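Table S2 (text version). Query chain:
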Amino acid sequence: MKNILFSCFFILLSTGFTNAQELRSPNGNLVMTFHLDKTGTPVYNLNFKQKTVIQESKMGFIIKSDILLNKGFKMTDTKTKSENSTWKPVLGEQKEIQNQYNELKVALVQEKSQRKVDICFRLFNDGLGFRYEFPVQENLRHFIIQEETTEFNLTGDHKLFWIPGDYDTNEYSYTTSKISEMQGLVYNATHVPLAAQATIKNLATQTPLMIKTTDNLYINIHEAALKNYPAMCLNVNDKTFSLSSHLVPDAVGNKGYIQTGSVTPWRTIVVSDDARNILASKMILNLNEPCTFEDVSWIKPVKYIGVWWEYFTGGGSTWAYSDNQDVVIGKTDFSQLKPNTTHGANTKHVKEYIDFASSNGFDAVLVEGWNEGWEDNTAFKKEHIYSFTKAYPDFNVKELSDYAAKKNVKIIMHHETTSSTAEYERQLKEALNFMDDNKYNAVKTGYVGPIIPRGEHHDGQQMVNHYTYVATEAAKHKIMVDSHEAVRPTGLHRTYPNWFAQESARGTEFESMEGIHPDHTTILPFTRLMGGPMDYTPGIFQGDLSVYGSKKNTLSTTLVKQLALYVTMYSPLQMAADLPENYIKFNDAFQFIKDVALDWDETYILEAEPGDYITIARKTKGKEEWFVGGITDENQRTATIDFSFLPAGKSFTATIYEDGKTADYKTNPQSYNIRKMKVNSKTKIKQKLASSGGVAISVK
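Corresponding structure-token output:
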């Protein structure tokens, strides 16, 4: 059967080019053509339903020093195969994923140097993945990448949903513009207060990059399986509408240290003429290696609350135990310091959170600020900032661990490194053993500020290796990892399912700082979430921070939109981020957060347009229940919710949480209504969404 498939998807063309090859997707909608041009440069292009997606684009590398590994090649061999299989993710948006593609691997050798490079292309029904492979060879063993010269040449002045190219942060607001408009917008886009910034000097953007073409194609460019390699940004030529790879450098300017016998990450291009198919794509996951853990039974979804948002409200709660900033880890006796009386992570207060979690069915409580060192958490200038095994005097580790266990609640460990990652690695073994001893099975790691080792970047090769090192070490202890301020994900939660969530984008905490735009959460699923789950920390009901005293910020959404985010922003780790008293005040709306599932049998993208709106339905894993979330940007709209995903011939009760008639994110965000109705597979409803509003539906 595979031999028959081979004849359908692989064709040797008789043209003027050297060994031009054509590869077709299993359904025939996508066609990739590869050839060597007259200079021996590898070139590919991509078409979808006879529309050009990527024009002829060059491939290759420059290796140190100025050695061209992108021309002078001849083709020595080609290999093809097809795959059509299914696999089951440990946690995910659907219980089973189809992995269907046609593959072409091209072996190249430079005629003069005899250096060898293979390029592997995989064409799925939803897009193209390709990577470079460096076979073991006599003329090349170790080399340093000066730059990767992969191009993605677009066909016109398309609309982009972009954040600036940066080596250290993904926490920018998204800008929506044509390519030709970027240069005039990039100054304002980059000149914003962030904890660490290293913006690219030329015009550049980060991936995942979402594109809508002038002829209504949707294109997403990213990468998959980022390991032992720097993350890829994209240079932008706003005159020719061309994109090219820009790898994150290390402290001395090198891009990557490679030994032959290894491979690069996959470069990914997801394509459709329907925006819903972009969100439904599982190509990036399919390009990652399967999990090799023998036992995954300990990896579970987690719904949690935490001693966290109170630090951002301006109400006075602090991470630090005292006001003495001249602390030295290992020398300062914290029991002799005068407490500041505002320390949030104290035993009595954490017990209150454990009680609330237990009485409302939550799995866990995150506690930030429990450990020594927060008084002087200076980034970059100080290396030994925290202890990851010593608690403040008012945080009784054993008492709280025992108390939580009696309440059937876990405590989530917090390891903020303030980007002193060298020190974190020195303490990691002891820190994980400490978690074992005290019954912690999940950790939130943080990387605020510039990196130590100094000169390294959050998204460079060394830090990419650090994140996977932490995930693999944690797995040895059956510990799950939620990383914040780390490199954006690339589907590695398939390979390391205990690395079950990341932040790596502008999350809810920015509602208390510079703010979030109403369209932000209608863009994130098309960009940041293409690579993996996001710990966005939604669920803020009291959006007017002036009620706490010092801050004047107001939330960028209605209360109901906050509910809908639990469905539209996929993650098996979801936080009810607000203060418990606000959930008590709006207890009927809080019910949706308590009910909503985290792990799914099926996902149905009902409506979607990047930057405008998203409506998604999901079926709870192993249960006859469904949840629907719909959100919009600053514009009011009417969502169409088609319940045809329900089993035919059965009737269900839908509980609809909707914006009130006068709801508006600016003037009346807490206006909502809850109603019930009978629904079946033939039901369709028109649902009004307020400005930056939403709808959340529970179907049982």
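Notes on Table S2: The two ends are 43 Å apart (CA to CA). Residues 421-437 form the longest helix (17 residues).
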